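Researcher: Go.
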Amino acid sequence: MVLHKGQLGEQFHAEHQLIKSGVLRDENPLDQSDAFNDFILACRRGDLGKCQEMISAGVNINGKDEFDYTPLIVASLCGHYELAQLLLESGALAERNTFQGERCIYNALNDRIRTLLLSYDFSKSTDPLQPWSSHITSLLTRQAPKTADITLIAASDSFDLHKFILAARSPYFRRKLLDASDTTSWKLPPTIPSAAFRLVIQYLYLSDLPQDLSDSRSTATEEDILTSADKISKQLELDKLWEALLTTDRRLARQRYQDEVNRAQQQVDAFFREHVLGHKMTVDSDKVGEIKWRHDNAIFADCLLAAEEPGDDDDDSQDVDGESAAPTSRRNGIPIGPTQDHADPKKTRRSVVYPVHKAMLLRSPYFETMFSSSFKEAQVGDHLHVITVDCPPSVLEIVLSYLYTEKCDCPLELALDLLYAADMLFLDKVKTKAAQVISTLGSGNTNLLVDRTHGAAAAGGAGEKDKAVVEMEPINIYDVINAAWELNVQRLEEFAARYLAYRLEDYIDEPEFAELIRQSAGRIKAREETDTIELLDDIRYYLSDRFRLRFEQTGLEEFMDDQGDVDGGAAAALAAARDEGAEENGVELSEQPGVVKPEPGPEPEAKVETGAEAEEPGQGGLKTLDGEVAEDEFASDAINYQVLLGKIDTMLEQLNLDA
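Model: Structure:
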């Protein structure tokens, strides 16, 4: 039942006192940052795209502004159903019987949003670590494939557990198991009730602790179980177990559970970095199969993963006779899986081998299927099996970090390789993260970035002063588009179209760009002349958006027609409108505005600066893409827009395509 307004006030004061006393943590802290204020404004407008971008960038979706409004309250109050749904799916809290949660429901604009809030409530699905903690918990009951490597016997019960989890979570187990890594069973004193030890194991594996501690299979009382659990927790150095057992308040229990999950993640992360990454080996690729690791090793690894280091790109482009060799590992310029370049046979390829644990690899359906099948990797051999993964070692480390800790920090230069690796391993969350890294390069309107599509040549024409501000993007936009098509990543298709539209003058005359449009047209089976070309449609849309934004900022959007085009006479009209506004403000004009021809003199250079038109010295105007000089930036934009549209039409004629 939803609380009434007076009850909301009582709820607020009660929660405020608990937070002030330090019993509860404030889950909706005051956030007065510019980013959060922009986020609140976007929620008020219902700008779904803007909110999605800011959530991906890490804005605090559970903060509150100076008026105690959270993003979810604002979205609910303004009636933005899809936005409210996005916020809930992204982790926004709407828990019943809390001040902010009840306030969300009370202020919802309509019953549809209110029903959404009531049906959602708080659940662990809003916790970003929920998939990871659920996997850890599932290992307690998973029977196949078998990954447990130690059995602990308490009274008449036995528990199949994992040494690396026990060692990561408990200092006591870490010391004991490191001294006896070959131990496969451990019998506990008979005085310890099995129900008490079960509580400890559930805590270590992040399972929800039961409210009813009595065990019908045991004669031990609830007091005996609690007393024994307290003794075990002290011996195993589990400081927070006793608090977790005694917590009855729902919100406080959830808060402590989240703290424990975060603590467990840090412990597993430390174990991963010290033992997995810390024991990686670099060997000759042809000797990987000769590695012999015992099953009773000191870091409890039960599998080895190998990844071959990429070759030198400069050497790979030449064969042994010095002639260029065509790469075979790329299709349409895209690395398929990892990049396997032609290497000089005289050079020894190197591979990096990582000792890992199958229990964590099972998070990937690829490995789960492998270890559940009749493949040799699923069989127990004399030594650990070596599995070669088709990606560079740096990418494999990102994948392993995600599998062990849910962390997925990917630099831009590895994002494309990670995208292919995640697709191969069926890791949708990692695939989405890689796509986000690429697509958050920006909206494409920055002027200082030159992409790797054009290589050093694009920056080479700039002067020494310009070179200091040019930053090379470690991507190839053609590779990005082909990857989006091959892996069916809509987010990247939209990004690539926007990216090209904002830099279209750099690409429109390239044969590779024309070939890209031809490929996009060919993606439609049995294409008719009336069919559109999806990539070109998107580029036209974002191109229109690019110039529309320029005009809207100055109040000149009326010069855009219904399709977002600027008519042929708009250039003079734009300048006239600007000058009219200047006259009204008392600005004296020296000459009639419009598009003028350049004064006689040297022919202008053919090179057009990327993303911005340079002002011609002594001309008093801006050079356009067709070599003319416009009076001002508005007239220049209008001309450039028409020039780019004309070039698109010319390219389509040359390709014999109708779009």
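Model: The radius of gyration is 31 Å.
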